Amino acid sequence: LWDYINLGLYNCAPFILMIIFNSGVIYHLIHRRQARVIQNSNIQHRAISITLVLTTFLFLIMTIPATIVAAFFFTTPTTTLMKILDSALYTYHITSFPLYFITFGVFRRECIMMITCKNNTQRIAPTLPTIAPSNIPN
Q1: In the chain, pLDDT over 70 holds for what percent of residues?
Q2: Helix 13-34 / helix 45-72 crossing angle, nearest 10 deg
């Protein structure tokens, strides 16, 4: 019984939520990219979309097999197959860092600066909208 609850709470529910929310983010990014204001921005639409799809796919192939095998096929989790599947399951949780490090240049630069103890001297300042002078005579 606990294996079925684990399968539902640990695998199925998060996978469904990942599909729903990641699809929503990708859909939003595609529509925002078509907007003229966002086309010239520094948002990495393709990198974000690829990362979301990869994260969901890795979750599917690395966590669900171990839970399905434990719930439906084995009563004792001491087999070699279970050890391999458990290793894949727990390895999934550390894949985000390398994936983000490879995919996102800004993340990579910040990590390197943090490791080398360099301060980020770059400041982000808000930009004010330019107001066109009115053509109304005084």
Answers
A1: 75
A2: 170
Closest by Cα among 52, 42, 55 to 105: 42
Name the token pair of 29: 């990014």
Q: Please tell me the distance from the alpha carbon of residue 97 to that of residue 107, in angstroms, as a whole number.
A: 10
**What sign has the CA pseudo-torsion 24, 30, 34, 37?**
positive
Task: Note if the pTM is more than 0.90.
Answer: no
Residue-level pLDDT at 4: 81
Query: Which tokens is 96 given?
Result: 């985000």
What residue type is 117 in one-letter code?
C
Q: Name the DSSP letter for residue 73.
A: T
- Judge residue 63's burial from the number of C-beta atoms within 10 Å of its C-beta, 0-12 exposed, 13-18 middle, 19 or more buried: buried
